[in-house]
Amino acid sequence: MKAKIRIIIIGMVMLCLAGVYAVIDKNRSIYDTDCDASLFQGIFLEEKKEVVQRFVCEEDQLDAIAFKIAADDQIDRKKIRLSYQLTEKASGKQVVKGETDLSRLKVGKFFSVRFPKVTGCKGKEYEFSVFLKERGGDGNVRLFYTPGGSEAAELFYEGDEIDGIGLFRTVTHRFDLETFVVTASFLIYIAVFMRWLYKLFK
């Protein structure tokens, strides 16, 4: 009886650990992830000129937007001021607005801007816009996109449509069932394996 209770407690602890681990930042790419990285193209951002990416949100909430951006080494990234805003297209309501520098930017990685949770997003069309408020020195700042447009994800630079889709991702901090199942399965496997070893060398 005690052995069964112990197994139940251990099982519950493992499920709780898997549940905690499964609360993650879930990324959903707006662009075609099958596109070869060698085909990525860059928009050279000029000060005060706006890039706008339209997209339909696949999640019920948004916690951040991540995008691929790069700055030349000679620019002080702490002095770069990048303004951004998220607008609900149908109503024209601005749901997010802010500024950031690029001090957290890492080469080859997506750069994310976090904001207070936006809810009721699923199926709605949004516009995420960014523009370079201050360059912070000589050099270029580029925002990347994949070639080939889509009616569901249009990209504009200073009002002109670009034949491409920005390398943008929506980020939702939530429980992810797939991560939970994989983690729980791994913990159960370890527990069974350890029990087998215990019996083998007992």
Explain the overall architecture.
The protein is an alpha+beta fold and 202 residues long. The protein folds into two domains: 49 residues; 150 residues, Jelly Rolls (Sandwich). The strands form three sheets. Strands 7-6-9-3-11-12 form a six-stranded antiparallel β-sheet, with no helix packed on it. Helix 1 packs antiparallel against helix 2. Keywords: Membrane, Transmembrane, Transmembrane helix.
Topology (SSEs and partners):
Blueprint: H1 2-21, E1 23-29, E2 41-44, E3 50-56, E4 61-67, E5 69-71, E6 81-88, E7 93-100, E8 111-119, E9 125-134, E10 141-147, E11 155-157, E12 160-162, E13 164-166, E14 168-175, H2 177-201
Helix pairs in contact: 1-2
Describe the biggest sheet? Answer: 6 strands, antiparallel
Shape: elongated
Query: What count of helical segments does DSSP give?
Result: 2
Main-sheet strand order equals 7-6-9-3-11-12
Structural class by SSE content: alpha+beta
Unreliable residue runs? none
Distance N terminus to C terminus? 21 Å
How much of the sequence lies in strands comes to 35-45%
Rg calc = 22 Å
CATH class of the largest domain: Mainly Beta
Number of strands: 14
Helix content: 10-25%
The CATH architecture of the largest domain would be: Sandwich
**Tally of structural domains:** 2
- Quote the average pLDDT: 89
The SSE string, one letter per element, is HEEEEEEEEEEEEEEH
Q: Could you name the CATH topology of the largest domain? A: Jelly Rolls
Brief write-up:
This protein is α+β, with helices and mostly antiparallel strands and 202 residues long. 22% of the residues lie in helices and 43% in strands. The strands form three sheets. Strands 7-6-9-3-11-12 form a six-stranded antiparallel beta sheet, with no helix packed on it. It has a four-stranded antiparallel beta sheet with strand order 1-14-4-8.
